Amino acid sequence: MTLLYMDDRFQHHRTGDHPECPERLRAIQARLSGSDLLSQVKRIDVCTATDEDVLRIHGSDYLRTLRSFADEGGGRIEADTVMSEDSARIAWLAAGSAVDAVSRVVQGEDTQALCLLRPPGHHALPDSAMGFCLLNNVAIAARTAVERLGLDRVLIVDWDVHHGNGTQDVFYEDERVTFFSAHRFPFYPGSGRSTETGRGKGLGTTFNLPLAFGISRQDYLKRFAAVLENAAEKARPDLVLISAGFDAHVEDPIGSLGLEASDFETLTVLVQQVAATHAQGRLVSLLEGGYNVERLAECVEVHLRQLASAVRWYGRFTGEIFAFLSSQGRDLVVDERDLTTRIDCFWHNALQSAPSCSIREILMAACCYLPGEILPALWW
Ligand SMILES: [Zn+2]
Predict the structure, then answer these.
(1) Is 160 exposed, middle or buried (0-12, 13-18, 19+ CB in 10 A)?
(2) Is the C or the N end of the chain the one with fewer CB within 10 Å?
(3) 2-311 fold
(4) Cα of 360 to ligand 1 centre, how many Å?
(5) If you measure from the C-alpha of residue 160 to the centroid of ligand 1, how many angstroms do you get, rounded to a whole number?
């Protein structure tokens, strides 16, 4: 089951008359509560980040500024970014949930998680707020994954309509975290040219796909898939994170790159394929933008439905195989790495061909990819 972080407290970050408003999450919660999805996910309590984790990205002076600004009642901390008296506390709750999701996924509790949090994070810089963002949730989660949880490589996929300049800046010289952003260009915040590819040790680990307003949906998806594949091949990540903004939707009032809600299913599948091929399916998605509240709620439902439908197969299938092998003393398979590759290959193809086919059909297809002697154990 996909892990889901969703909590009323994220609405306590009050922004007044502002596109990044509590109603965004209220609409998502109402939509998901009215669907069948909440019975297909595992709800996890949100939790506050430790300063140790936040300091992996942000400076201590900046953390003090955020807290004292909130304590004094809040206001406009940056041209586009508003805080209320609770906003610092909620920002730490958002970052903490991102870190907790990554920790649980890395420790194997489940392969996928979705954090429906705010404030968003991908514009936030180490020492300043920017573009509705206070703490850079995805950057904090990625760096915690490599520095505290011991992963070698992480891939961040950012499909928010705006370039994730804060995340890019943080990892521009860091070869352990690959950053791929597809975004409208020219547009806010002005960065994200394809020539921005990293620096020093990080050279070649930043992938930017600037897209002109008016691009067709087909071209968007085709170009996204191609650059994502390059980034994934280069990164060979142990974990994939998504900066999941939904403001590329055609009806978004401040973004829009012409996408429909169903296109976010395609984007989700593409990233799931990367996670399955390289990272044992490990995927954590964090909400960023999306400002037409009704369309945002619809897109989040599409995204979560795809996460929830696919993980049933992957988690159960992989778990069954390894449980069977350990019950047999693993004598059946000469090379465990070879088996892992076969499972990944199988899963990649199953997802591509029929993400919603029956378990029996999937296992029939598995015959092509898995050693024949372990298949009988899977016909439960
Ligand atoms: Zn955005």
Answers:
(1) buried
(2) C
(3) Arginase; Chain A (3.40.800)
(4) 41
(5) 5
The amino acid at 255: G
CA distance 231 to 340: 22
Encode 26-39 in three state secondary structure: HHHHHHHHCCCHHH
pLDDT of 356 > 50? The answer is: no
Q: Please tell me the distance between residue 61's alpha carbon and the centre of ligand 1 in angstroms.
A: 26
Q: Among the options 123, 162, 278, 303, which is catalytic?
A: 123
> Tell me: the pLDDT tens digits for 258-300?
999 999 999 999 999 899 889 999 999 999 999 999 999 999 9
**What are the angstrom distances between the C-alpha of 301 and each of 63, 94, 161, 171?**
34, 20, 18, 30
123 is catalytic: yes
The contacts of residue 222 (CB under 8 Å, 6+ apart) are none
Instruction: Give exposure, 339-348, as e/b (b: 16+ Cβ within 10 Å).
Output: beebbbebbb
Helical residues (DSSP H) of the chain, grouped into ranges: 23-33, 51-54, 60-71, 87-106, 137-147, 165-171, 217-235, 261-278, 293-327, 336-353, 359-366
Amino acid in position 275: A
Strand partners, 218: none
Q: What is the β-pairing status of strands 112-115 and 283-287? A: parallel
- Write down the domain spans for the chain: 2-311, 315-378
